[in-house]
Amino acid sequence: MWGLDRLFPPPIQVPYSTIVTAADGTTLHAFLSRDDKWRLYATLDEITPRMQQTILQKEDRWFRWHWGVNPVSMVRAAGRNLLSGKRTSGASTITMQVVRLLEPRPRTYGSKLIEIARAMQLEAHLSKDEILQLYLNLVPYGGNVEGIKSASLLYFGKPPQLLSLAEITALAIIPNRPSSLRLGEQNAAIVQARNAWLRRFAEAGTFDSTAINDALAEPLTAHRQPAPNLAPHLSLRLRAEQPHVPIIRSTLKPAVQTAAERLVRQYVDRVKGQNIHNAAVLVINNQTGAVEAYVGSADFGNTFDGGQVDGVRAIRSPGSTLKPLLYALAFDKGLITPKAKLNDVPTNFAGYEPDNYDRHFNGPVTAEFALANSLNIPAVKLLRDVSTPVFVAKLREAGFRTVQKQADDMGLSMILGGCGVTLEELTQAYTAFAAPQTTNGSLRRLRYTVNSRSTRDKAEGDDTSPTERLFSPEAAFLVTNTLTQLTRPDLPNNFDNSYRLPRIAWKTGTSYGRRDAWSIGYNRRYTVGVWVGNFSGVGVPELSGANTATPLLFQVFNAIDYNAPAGWFRPPVGGKLALRQVCPESGDVPRVDAPERTCVGRAVDYYIMGVSRSSPCQHQAVVWTNAVGTMSYCTYCRPTSGDSLTRAVARLYPNLAPEVVAWYAASHRPYAAIPPHNPACTRVFGQGAPPTITSLNAGSEYFIDPKSPADLALTCQTANDVQQVYWYLNDRLLRGAKPTETLFFRPTPGTLTVSCADDKGRVSKVRVLIKRG
User: Fold this and answer.
1) Which pLDDT score is estimated for 87?
2) Is the dihedral of CA 594, 596, 602, 603 positive or negative?
3) Is 12 within 8 Å of 241 (Cβ atoms)?
4) CA distance 101 to 135
5) Is the dihedral of CA 373, 377, 378, 380 positive or negative?
6) pLDDT tens, residue by residue, 417-473
7) Fewest Cβ atoms nearer than 10 Å: which of 43, 110, 156, 714?
């Protein structure tokens, strides 16, 4: 036998069809085998005792006792063949039939001898159960259908363990006559042959009379059905990753997957009139990291609208959906707290001038307001303070592979959608906010298949994917606390005060050109990601994260988690998160030692102990002026005595950032400007921030047309105490101007140094290059 194994190894490697099942074993999707057969792999668990009993009684009653060959049957068959002068019986055992199915040969005596040797070889390598399993996986049922599991699913629409005695008997007799007994075509003939064998079983006492009578009365309604085709995108993905695994057990839940597919299909049917043709949904279990629903498109069979594109893995622009990750990082670095003020005013970031979605500005706002309302300018400023490389590194930790590839080209625009991400990456990242309290802030890696180390006895859902710390529990809670607010612009129309509004935290995003609408939401149980748009990249004016993607997100949550247990995210226990009083005007700690009470009122704010900044509030500055407030003094020229008209008076003025001063002036909003400094003072100032030149942009190249030269504009932003600025071109005075005034000049080719000095002597410079166009 050893020599036979070396020369002719047993041919037990069978190219099975790939089956993708749900977490509970339900078949979701089946594929043709490499040789284009429906040859589905039946496990030993699916071969029931009744099925074994039926097959063995019909094909090989002595299967459990012989060693691959039944000599009594062979002698009997040989005698019959000699007496009749022709071949009437082959006396093949199930083991010999397996050999014939594995290695088809002409029906000759020489082939029979080879089958005998091969059968003995199989018996030496496989158990009886494994040989019977192999036989049931290979028996033909006509056409390209092989194996009892294939026939069960394709003709009866059920797994083999659910077959009745009548159905098992019908499937047992067809392999002997697969051409003349075709299910769905010759059902009457099959019933006749089936009943004949059922009567034989009754005579042999194989089954009791009740079971036989029920089987005889059972009609045969078998007909060819389409192969299971749920979750096609994930099924294709898993088969590509595991091409030689016959049964891939996914983590999908049939009820959740079916509901998600139905909702996506129905929703896209409703919005097709707006030229919106596709959507994708990903549902993640926060406790385990298991993906319970995976919908790559609205209709996999729709090739016109790109139905076979996997929207879960398609690279798209994220819009504003990365903002919560940036704010969490800023909380952890101590740059902001929820009540910290950020300036939402027009700002030039070295030539990059972003705008808000609604093209309106709000002035100084709190960080939580900026995040809840998805304001762009504060987010860009925050990214500048955090630094793009640091944020990209954090996204790399979170598994954003496309961002990692684009890291060298990333700029401030990435926080507004200037990069590529996938729905899979985004939804996975949000699991850090939705993690259980003990691991809040930890990213849970997604799991698409049931862990191979799990056993049959292990309770469902025990397997969990590994977690990695992405943010602190405190930062994760602060983000969640903000994203739960309902007073925000991305609440869909007609959902305010609606019973259909699930309790979730969510964030929306709309890409530039309205090509992608996103909505990522989570509660304690699930994190759900939704993308809506067109795979062609065509933008739609009506497309938005709030009114296009979020309604579908709400529908998914209401379908899969409507009766979720009560409870919500709570502040981390025993952590560093605490409350403190802050100045409502700045979000900073009030100054108790200030000469004047600069902070009126108090607000309560969360902060992370030992991390969050504790800067004293400086939103107002004490300025000495004359009695009527028309002139200011410095310590050098301030009068120390005099009557009520000439004595210096201490007043409070807002300590405004230059860009806020410029916005107030440009939008004609009143603010308390610091009076001009005493003209008689000869002191030279050097402290304080110099003017910020917002045009021209440092390091830029400007092209001019010699035939029709155009003027270039000069603009700047200054502190609240500046009344006059002076512009210089290559150290030559152009002229003085008001800080908010725009100057124009006619450039000439060459290197140009632009300088701006304020009336306090503070200077800033930029260098640009003028070229002929």
Assistant:
1) 52
2) negative
3) no
4) 8
5) positive
6) 999 999 999 999 999 999 887 788 999 899 999 964 433 334 344 567 777 899 999
7) 110
The mean pLDDT value for 142-168 works out to: 95
Closest CA to 506 of 493, 494, 492: 492
Rounded to whole angstroms, how far apart are CA atoms 152 and 158?
6
Q: Residue 692 to residues 657, 660, 686, 717: CA-CA distances in angstroms?
A: 10, 12, 15, 5
Contact 174, 141 (CB under 8 A): yes
Domains of the chain: 2-217 (1.10.3810.10), 323-560 (3.40.710.10), 577-608 (no CATH), 692-772 (2.60.40.10)
**Each residue of 103-128: pLDDT tens digit?**
888 877 788 788 888 888 888 889 99
CB 135 within 8 A of CB 147: no
- How many other C-beta atoms are found inside a 10 Å radius of the C-beta of residue 547? 18
Q: What is the DSSP code (8-state) at residue 333?
A: T
Q: Is the pLDDT of residue 263 over 70?
A: yes
- The one-letter amino acid at 409: D
Neighbouring C-alpha atoms within 13 Å toward the C-beta of 773: 10
Matching residue, tokens 């990522």: 520
Contact criterion met (CB below 8 Å) for 394 and 429: no
Determine contact, residues 738/661, Cβ cutoff 8 Å: no
Residue type, 766: V
Task: For 564, list phi and psi in degrees, rounded to 5.
Answer: -65, 150
* Alpha carbon distance 378, 358 (integer Å): 14
Q: Which residue has the tokens 């007073």?
A: 487
Q: Where are the alpha helices (DSSP H) in 93-127?
A: 94-102, 109-125
Alpha-carbon distance 401 to 378, whole Å?
Answer: 26
What confidence score (pLDDT) does residue 639 get?
86
Angle at the Cα of 149 (from 180 to 223), degrees rounded to 5? 50
SS3 sequence of 140-199 = ECCCCEECHHHHHHHHHCCCHHHCCHHHHHHHHHHHHCCCCCCCCCCHHHHHHHHHHHHH
Residues listed for the chain = 773
Cα distance between the two ends of the chain:
87
Beta strands in 41-195 (DSSP E): 145-146
Q: In what order do the strands lie in the sheet with 649-654?
A: 632-633, 620-625, 649-654
Q: Cα 704 to chain center, whole Å?
A: 47
* Token pair for 555: 């529908």
Cα–Cα nearest to 441, from 272, 245, 575: 575
| 3-state helix/strand/coil string of 278-306 | EEEEEEEECCCCEEEEEECCCCCCCCCCC
**Residue 310: CA count within 13 A, CB half-sphere:** 15
Give mean pLDDT, residues 254-266.
96
- Do the strands 38-39 and 603-608 form a parallel or antiparallel pair, or are they unpaired? unpaired
344 falls in which pLDDT band (50, 70, 90)? very high
Instruction: Convert 613-678 into a string of H (helix), E (strand) and C (coil).
Output: CCCECCCEEEEEECCCCCCEECCCCCCCCCCCCCCCEEEEEECCCHHHHHHHHHCCCCCCCCCCEC
- Give the amino acid at 543: L
Largest CA distance in the chain: 145
DSSP state of 268: H
C-alpha span between 502 and 493 (Å, rounded): 15
Mind giving me the DSSP string for 674-718? Answer: PPPB-TT--PPP--SPPPEEEESPTT-EEEE-TTS---EEEEEE-
pLDDT tens-place string over residues 13-55: 899 999 999 999 999 999 999 999 999 999 999 999 999 999 9
Query: Which H or E element spans position 515?
Result: none
Token digits of residue 107? 């029906």
Element counts in the chain: helices (H) and strands (E) = 21, 27
Predicted pLDDT at 85: 52
Please report, as a single letter, which amino acid is at residue 763.
V
Q: Half-sphere exposure of residue 524, counting CA atoms within 13 Å on the CB side?
A: 12
Based on the number of CB atoms within 10 Å of its own CB, is 531 exposed (0-12), middle (13-18) or buried (19 or more)?
Answer: buried
